[in-house]
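Researcher: Here's my situation. A collaborator sent me these components and asked whether they could plausibly form a single complex. I don't have experimental data yet, so a predicted model of the whole assembly would be a useful starting point for our discussion.
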Amino acid sequence: MSVVIGTEEIEVAYGDMSVVRGVSLEVRQGEAVAVIGPNGAGKTTLFKAIAGLLALRGGRILYEGARLDGLRHYEIVKRGVVYVPAERELFPQMSVLENLELGAYTNYGSRAERLKFVLGVFPRLEERKGQMAGTLSGGEQQMLAVGRGLMARPRILLLDEPSTGLAPLFVSEMYRQLTRLKGEGLTILIAEQQIPHALAFTERAYVLENGAIRLSGKSEDLLGNSEIQKTYLGMA
Ligand SMILES: Nc1ncnc2c1ncn2[C@@H]1O[C@H](COP(=O)(O)OP(=O)(O)OP(=O)(O)O)[C@@H](O)[C@H]1O
Ligand SMILES: [Mg+2]
């Protein structure tokens, strides 16, 4: 499996405060990889840096063997690296359909074909396509955020805590849909607080603490790791 994206010793800071400190990770073609870690560990900062929304202070990012860091966000999306923010950032006064179409801003020509695909993945969005995004339930808004990301024709999707604020039933539903997307060959990097879900869904995971990778390995091994069980799964 070829490496789709790799970060090499990347550093990201807000002012003088270094928040991501020497992080190296890689995601291979067709893999789902998790980044887990406590609040404030730097997961969102890491994802935003990959997406070109924050500049690197050090290190570099390779995508399909070429430098990704330094490119503008638009160029990064156009190449197929698509970030879905935890905050969703939908346009509440616009319809579901309009929000989806905006997701295709880098590949407008293929939006009709993409739309068919996305509405197939999320039939619920098809039912609600004329509804204002702001009036959707939390779970539906999350589907819309992921759907909008899919409109950009991602090669790799960076999902930042897709289960935040969702009822357990919706979390399971979201993971069923993500499993289906993965089955269609989509490569996924996911930040998650729902550790059991994340480790069940992914092949590998990185544990980020205080801006640095503390542990990494196969997800199934991490699920059985006593430190992980104690710190993140509340097991004695
Ligand atoms: N815009 C900002 N300016 C200054 N500091 C920031 C900014 N955004 C985040 N931070 C700080 O950077 C650190 C990492 O934040 P980040 O949001 O990346 O963590 P996270 O792992 O995504 O946490 P969570 O699980 O709560 O989403 C935190 O200490 C946070 O307070
Ligand atoms: Mg975050």
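Model: Some features of this prediction you could bring to your collaborator: The mean pLDDT is 94. Residues 1-80+184-236 form a domain with the Rossmann fold fold (CATH 3.40.50.300).
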